[in-house]
Design brief:
Strands 21-22-23-24-27-26-25 form a 7-stranded mixed beta barrel, surrounded by 4 helices. α19 links the parallel β23 and β24. The chain folds into 3 domains: 259 residues, Aconitase, domain 3; 126 residues, Aconitase, domain 3 (2-Layer Sandwich); 177 residues, Aconitase, domain 4 (Alpha-Beta Barrel), CATH 3.20.19.10. The longest helix is centred in the N-terminal third of the chain and has 17 residues. It is of the alpha/beta class and 644 residues long. α2 crosses α5 and α6 packs parallel to α7. The protein has 22 helices and 27 strands. Helix content is 30%, strand content 18%. The structure holds alpha-methylisocitric acid and iron/sulfur cluster. The site of iron/sulfur cluster has 11 residues, from loops.
Length: 644
């Protein structure tokens, strides 16, 4: 029996476990990436481990999220990360050099390698045939120190692509179609592997758009083969030597299969407030819009930007619309500048932003109240844009540009002939904004520079025999990490200051949560299905930990968030009978009776609702490693104990 591509890479990197879906495996990590919003925590944790130099083949620290620098906090974080990077053997991508995933694809991604990033969209690297996964900062710190990354062995889903995209239909429409079919929970515990004759019709940046947004399926990662197209892309990046041909075996066996005929697709949009709330642009109709934002790690490649520029050329952005464009990297921006496409954008009235995440994470460009914003981004969660009542639609760059000039949601197919854009034979290569680390003899002299906003990482306490606390909050299905720990311009600068951040915890759902948790001295959270979907941010676990949360009881969890909870020493437990969720109310006093015994023996946990006198059963099901971490009260305690 042959292997799928993902299975081949897993097999080559397996350090523990067996390739049986659902059981824990440990993988050797070749490359890591961090960004600044998760990076400060990751490097604080790396520093706490006392390791001199990273042990990976390549580690890169990017600055791309917190670039507004309103106040000293962001700049201090940048300086801290730069000092650690240079001291510890990590490359440092300076602010302005671009969005981590775009730059990594251009300059560092290698087919067949493993990449672990402290950002959920790390699977962008799957576009170039990497096994690229997102994780919490602590897991990335451990990987930098040479430790394995542990995850449940994923099932493999084959997406067989046939046909060719019609004019004006884009890679974004392919992934929106996959989201429509599978939903935001559909990828949990799975790798989405693209195969079939349609693959050859897609460029690497198009593939990367698809693997990037596989994060929205909740998938472990997504991957494309490494073929002639990958070769051409790497060659154009002057990295031909990194090319390896990689395919699934012809007799590979997949756990699930899906077929998409590219020629049948039409322009699609994800409507507020979930990436799987997908309809055709035609069906939604020519709704009025207020804003269009083009960019983000999903759609900011040179090819995307050139298409947008071609649509804008000689036109003016409609008077009722604000159009912002953030090219994904210095390379992209520079090439647009030199071939005149940037001038076409500026001339049409586009507001050009720096090459960074920007509006995607609510760092500026919040829409007007009740505003309708079309974005080429990957997430349209409620409130993420910074305007609580705005409606965000996720669309392709083609649809975004057509709509910006028309002033209403527009099916780009109405524009007539489509401009033909070719991938260049060579990209502009200038890595002068990527700093190399110090040589080891200089590194010893380098000081790590902390700022006053950088506070210590909260740590958990060893698990008690029983845990009792109020149900502080009861939330529904698909709660995102943006609900648990919002980002945006007002809050993001405090990513290294958990005490300050804590006042905003769950503010999107319940503004009283933080105060009540503090007053009660902590407690328990009750959640629905797919709890903690979305980002890798471990702040969504560290902040509840700081507020005294001891357990989250949910119908199911998203992978990265579950791992972050365990790393923080917070118990993630699931209902055996999902209907029990309905029987618990907020403020009920809950007791996890003899929980230490249940976790230690890996038996069902007993939850007593002291208020109603009802008893429920919960799944534990932790691996040996997870059990040890939970008993110790989190991964930092566990690592310290195992060192001693
Ligand atoms: C996001 O898109 O939500 C982020 C901001 O990139 C996060 C990371 C973070 O919260 O810092 C992610 O996707 O992991
Ligand atoms: Fe940045 Fe947005 Fe991509 Fe997250 S999804 S890495 S905020 S561009």
């Amino acid at each position: 029996m042959g292997y799928t591509l993902a299975q081949k890479i897993i097999k080559n990197h397996l350090v523990s476990g067996e390739m049986v879906p659902g059981t824990e495996i440990g993988l050797k990590i070749d490359q890591t990436l961090t960004q600044d919003a998760t990076g400060t925590m990751a490097y604080l944790q790396f520093e706490a481990m006392g390791i001199e130099r990273v042990k990976t083949e390549l580690s890169v620290a990017y600055i791309d999220h917190n670039t507004l620098q309103n106040g000293f906090e962001n700049a201090d974080d940048h300086r801290f990360i730069q000092s650690v990077a240079q001291k510890r053997g990590i490359r440092f991508s300076r602010p302005g050099n671009g969005i981590c995933h775009q730059v990594h694809l251009e300059r560092f991604g290698v087919p067949g390698k493993t990449l672990l990033g402290s950002d959920s969209h790390t699977p962008t690297g799957g576009g170039i045939g990497m096994l690229a996964m997102g994780a919490g900062g602590l897991d990335v710190a451990v990987a930098m120190g040479g430790g394995a990354y542990y995850l449940p062995m994923p099932k493999i889903v084959k997406v067989n692509l046939t046909g060719r995209l019609s004019n004006w239909v884009a890679a974004k429409d392919i992934i929106l179609e996959v989201l429509r079919i599978l939903s935001v929970k559909g990828g949990v515990g799975k790798v989405i592997e693209y195969t079939g004759p349609g693959v050859a019709t897609l460029s690497v940046p198009e593939r990367a758009t698809i693997t990037n947004m596989g994060a929205e399926l909740g998938a472990t990662t997504s991957i494309f083969p490494s073929d002639e197209t990958t070769h051409a892309f790497l060659k154009a990046q002057n990295r031909e030597a990194d090319f390896v041909e990689l395919y699934a075996d012809a007799d590979a066996v997949y756990d699930e299969e899906l077929a998409i005929d590219l020629s049948e697709l039409v322009p699609l949009a994800a409507m507020p407030h979930m990436p799987d709330n997908v309809k055709t642009v035609e069906e939604i109709g020519e709704i009025a819009i207020d804003q269009v934002c083009i960019g983000s790690c999903t759609n900011s490649s040179l090819m995307d930007m050139l298409k947008v520029a071609a649509v804008l050329k000689g036109k003016t952005v409609a008077p009722n619309v604000s159009l912002s464009i953030a090219p994904g990297s210095k390379q992209v921006l520079n090439m647009l500048a030199s071939n005149g496409a940037l001038a076409d954008m500026i001339d049409a009235g586009a507001r050009i932003l720096e090459s960074a995440c920007g509006p995607c994470i609510g760092m500026g460009q919040s829409p007007n109240s009740k505003g309708v914003s079309l974005r080429t981004f990957n997430r349209n969660f409620e409130g993420r844009s910074g305007t609580a009542d705005a409606g965000i639609y996720l669309v392709s760059p083609e649809t975004a540009a057509a709509s910006a000039v028309n002033g209403k949601l527009t099916d780009p197919r109405t524009l007539g002939e489509m401009p033909q854009i070719q991938m260049p034979d060579s990209f502009f290569i200038n890595d002068n904004m990527i700093l190399l680390p110090d040589a080891p003899q200089d590194a010893v002299k380098r000081e790590v520079l902390y700022g006053p906003n950088i506070k210590s990482v909260p740590t958990g306490k060893p698990l008690e025999d029983s845990v009792t606390g109020k149900a502080l909050l009861k939330v529904g299905d698909n709660i995102t990490t943006d609900h648990i720990m919002p980002a945006g311009a007002k809050i993001l600068p405090y990513r290294s200051n958990v005490p300050y951040l804590s006042q905003f915890c769950f503010a999107v759902c319940d503004k009283t949560f933080a105060k009540r948790s503090k007053k009660e001295g902590g407690g328990i959270i009750v959640g629905g299905a797919n709890y903690g979907q979305g980002s890798s941010r471990e702040h969504a676990a560290l902040v509840p930990l700081y507020l005294g949360v001891r357990a989250v009881i949910a119908k199911s969890f998203a992978r990265m968030h579950k791992a972050n909870l365990i790393n923080s020493g917070i118990l993630p437990l699931t209902f055996i009978n999902e209907d029990d969720y309905d029987k618990i109310s907020r403020d009920d006093v809950l007791e996890l009776r003899d929980i230490k015994k249940s976790v230690t023996n890996n038996t069902d946990a007993v939850l007593v609702d002291v208020t109603t006198a009802e008893t429920f059963r919960l799944h534990t099901g932790f691996s040996e490693r997870e059990t040890a971490i939970l008993l110790a009260g989190g991964k930092l305690n566990y690592t310290a104990q195992n060192k001693a």
